[in-house]
Amino acid sequence: MNNLKLEAALNELLSPHLIKDYCPNGLQVEGKTQVNKIITGVTACQALIERAIEEKADALLVHHGFFWKGEPAEIRGMKFRRIKALIENGINLYAYHLPLDVHPELGNNAKLAQMLELEVIGGLEEGNPGSVAMYGQLDKAITGAELASRLSIGLHREPLHIGDNAPTEIKTVGWCTGGGQDYIDLAAQKGLDAFISGEISERTVHTARELGIHYFAAGHHATERYGVKALGEWLAQEHQFDVTFIDIDNPV
């Protein structure tokens, strides 16, 4: 498929024009005109780019790309080396950030809910149809230890669990993959039993304890593996691309 037609297909699926984001979504670095082989991964780091080169990929599709709001505009140092490697090897870089977080079927939040057997009720941000944070419920109440176990098994890492002053059982849950820890306040206001995000801040521990809500920090990278993987699988199924997901381990 033509590289611009691929971008159009992804844009039609993910609707980035409807979401205000911190970076450009879509084709960030242009490469070969024709795309057959695609590598997917979480972040366009040098290690993933090198793997894409080794695999002779025509395109790299990620959740975390380049050109973030507030970052230096100059293409030098680390940014230069990454972009140089892409251009020299004709690799197209496609990146979708918040549009991939919120997609109701392939998004990071949707895949986490599916993994934890959570029924999605709606967005935590009332009045915002594009709410990044979600909330829902389990079919039956479980303990904090049991929810931690589900996260550990599904994400292949032990979550940090703060449950000092929280309910004995968990039935209602809010969540936001990645750096969504500050949505814990909305989760507590809604009276939810637990909140899950990828990252944690120092203040989050105190918030969880004082508002009486379970909090689970499950890892930014770990909670955002599955959206881009699902997106690649969609491309393989719907458009017959040769797609390989490569996980560059990240403990954060």
Can you offer a commentary on this structure?
- With about 250 residues, this protein is of the alpha/beta class.
- The chain has two domains: about 5-95, 3-Layer(aba) Sandwich (Udp-n-acetylmuramoylalanyl-d-glutamate--2,6- Diaminopimelate Ligase, Chain: A, domain 1); about 105-225, NIF3 (NGG1p interacting factor 3)-like (Udp-n-acetylmuramoylalanyl-d-glutamate--2,6- Diaminopimelate Ligase, Chain: A, domain 1, 3-Layer(aba) Sandwich), CATH 3.40.1390.30.
- It is about 35% helix and about 25% strand.
- It contains ten helices and eleven strands.
- The strands form two sheets. Strands 5-6-8-9-10-7 form a six-stranded mixed sheet, sandwiched between helices. A five-stranded mixed sheet has the order 1-4-3-2-11, with helices on both faces.
- Helix 2 packs parallel to helix 3 (about 75-90) and helix 5 (about 110-115) crosses helix 10.
- The longest helix is centred in the C-terminal third of the chain and has 14 residues, at about 225-240.
- The mean pLDDT is about 95.
Care to give the gist of this entry?
The chain is an alpha/beta fold. Helix content is 37%, strand content 23%. It has two domains: 3-96, Udp-n-acetylmuramoylalanyl-d-glutamate--2,6- Diaminopimelate Ligase, Chain: A, domain 1; 103-223, Udp-n-acetylmuramoylalanyl-d-glutamate--2,6- Diaminopimelate Ligase, Chain: A, domain 1 (3-Layer(aba) Sandwich).
What's the topology here?
Elements: H1 3-14, E1 26-29, E2 37-43, H2 46-54, E3 59-64, H3 77-88, E4 92-95, H4 98-102, H5 108-116, E5 118-123, E6 134-142, H6 144-155, E7 160-162, E8 170-176, H7 184-189, E9 194-197, H8 202-211, E10 214-217, H9 220-223, H10 226-239, E11 242-245
Parallel strand pairs: 2-3, 2-11, 3-4, 8-9, 9-10
Antiparallel strand pairs: 1-4, 5-6, 6-8, 7-10
